[in-house]
Amino acid sequence: MVPSTGPFEWASTPFTMIATPKHVQNLSDTKTDEYVEAASSMAVFHNLLLRSLNTIYLQAPHVKDGDKKAFVGYAYCWYDAIDAHHTGEEQEFFPWIEEAAGEKGIMDANVEQHKIFEKGIKEYGSYLRSLKGKEKTFSGDHMRSIINSFGPPLHQHLSDEIPSLLALRKYGDKIHLNELWDKQSIGKFTLHSAATRIPFYLCNLDRTFEDGLWKDFPEVPKLAKDFMGNWVARLNGGYWKFGACTMTGVPKELYAKGK
Ligand SMILES: [Fe+2]
């Protein structure tokens, strides 16, 4: 594990970041292969999920009444992101991998792990939905207790999935892992994702992680990134101050914190 570091108390705990294979193996762009690339992309995305979960865990007890509605909306973006990620894996990415490998069940261990924390994540989503219209009753302690119920097995799963992707190398040219990663519909632009998922991702992607190795992740033209960060993020604009980073991926101090 390589914890992200910041110059201040930051979103690097309680769930620590996962080192990417590309960084661990110290590979340049010319030496890497698509298994390392895809497993590393997955690790960067998993870190986004862990880092943003940390922002929710750390800030939940300190949110002032006037900010609770925005915080509940922000925290729900995490539910939306993890739900879309795991649904995408189960319905698209993993079946495509098995089809390409010509072997059924090789991704079953990952799907089985999803079941371990599914109940806790569902409870997280339904608690936030139950607050609609009465967001001021949001309890940071209750939010933390729900996260405590699924956080450790979720962290384990997000870590374990990386070597499981690297292990697919034994199938050689049969699987084009990077192409399958790019093909997932989760990455496609929709109105819903523009107003919630994309700004949520942008303000939780640490572009300084692993000495800036991922500063251009994902590969989207700079103009499009700027448009997202500057304009699209104005939708639900009250949410993103709770993010771990600025819209350009620079770590920032948490907005809601204790004394
Ligand atoms: Fe994953």
How is this structure best summarized?
This protein has 259 residues and is mainly α. The protein has helices at 21-24, 34-59, 68-101, 108-130, 140-166, 177-183, 191-195, 197-202, 209-212, 222-230.
Break the fold down into its secondary structure elements and pairings.
Layout: H1 21-24, H2 34-59, H3 68-101, H4 108-130, H5 140-166, H6 177-183, H7 191-195, H8 197-202, H9 209-212, H10 222-230
Helix pairs in contact: 2-3, 2-5, 3-4, 4-5
What hetero molecules are bound to the protein chains? fe (ii) ion
What class do helices, strands and sheet pairing give? mainly alpha
Order of helices and strands: HHHHHHHHHH
Helix content: 55-70%
Strand tally is 0
Cα end-to-end separation: 29 Å
Overall pLDDT score: 88
The Cα radius of gyration reads 18 Å
Main β sheet profile = none
Q: Would you identify the regions where 5 or more consecutive residues have pLDDT less than 50?
A: 1-7
How many helix segments? 10
Instruction: Tell me, briefly, the overall form.
Output: globular
Percent of residues in β-strands: under 5%
Organism: Exophiala bonariae
InterPro entries: Dimeric_xanthone_biosynth, Hemerythrin-like
Domain Hemerythrin-like: 45-161
Protein name: Hemerythrin-like domain-containing protein
